[in-house]
Amino acid sequence: MRKTPARLSLLAAALPVAAVAADLPDPVTEADYRAVSEAEARLGQQLFYDPILSGNRSVACATCHHPAFGTSDGLSLGFGDGGTGLGPKRVTDAENPPEARVPRNAQALWNLGAHEFRVMFHDGRVEVREDGSIRTPLGEDMVGDFASLLSAQTMFPVLSADEMAGHYGENEVSKAVRQGRLTGPGGAWDIIARRVAGVEDYARAFAALDPAISSPDEITFTAISDAIAAFIELEWRSDDSPFDAHLRGQAPLPEPARTGMALFYGEAGCAACHSGKFQTDHGFHAMGEMQLGPGKAAAFESHFRDEGRMRVTGDPADAYAFRTPSLRNVTTTAPYGHAGAYRDLGAYLRHHAAPRAGLEGYEPQVVLPVFEGPDWAVREDDRELAAIAAAARVEAPGLTEPEIDAILAFLETLTDPVALEGRLGVPKTVPSGLPVPTP
Known about the structure:
With 439 residues, the chain is mostly helical. 32% of the residues lie in helices and 4% in strands.
């Protein structure tokens, strides 16, 4: 029988913290993270905020992953190259407009230095294999050895026309990408590395970090991506929230968060996917999410669908499945979903609790810069909507409003003020002299 709001008060009494203790994760410890060099992280901080890495020198990593927006960009689907401004104020550049939106919501960067993060991107197209090697969309056609999976992931946004590279003919990086010249001398990554090496402060910093670098010519993009990864790992480690304090026995959660925790790890079933120390099983699940924007279907298709994990594995069972996101600092990372279809976390929870009903009753609540493109092609396609709904693996009668409120209160306890503030912060300037992205 479905619970009523009156039963919710009984749930708080019937499920004390001790009753769900067996289902709670262990506290996060130092052993859960990769060791990070602060000197390398400080170099990575400069590179993360420096537009020198983009083809047109106009977009930095921080453009789409800024601490002011929970290390995302505050948009459902953003613009990299071809946009100006940050967050919800970002608009198309009238003199160099983008050709399309970035096809998926910019993911948050919390705790990516933890050992358990072995897949990256919404579809897991960069991942650590069982033998420890790193799988990427380019197969074995990579350069150098990466210090971490996160470093390997960092290699790819700089190649995307809609993110950082720019479009064909605009610059030397985008031309190299279009011609398929990615690795080796004169390849896209090498072009960017030579730019960085040509900045005296960067050349000095890399030489000081690695005595084996005797000349700026020896600075590789792998070294650049390693430094950026080190910065992300140090800056946005997040394990000092009220929930962490509760797990360490330092302070119990107050109501209604305590009831929300009991629901999350109990009857509501959230922890079936959002399990572990960082509230993710790192798996892929079809949850009937609304698709908008350009999507990522097969290259020969003109439809705006997004096939999710199936695009990586080729397995029809993976259709419309996307990676379970970590929920650390989740209240700061709106909009939600692989396409950012929900700006409100409560509405997203309602959809998640009853995916097919949520898809059928979806009302747009997006944060989208103005762009002349067919954002809602899938919403107007009954056949595609039916396919998304049919793929959904979970269906339930939903949650009551008091239950939603209690779970939201619990999710708020996953917010870590230390991580939100950052450890190194946003630099006022970067060695290239280019403008630092600022809201």
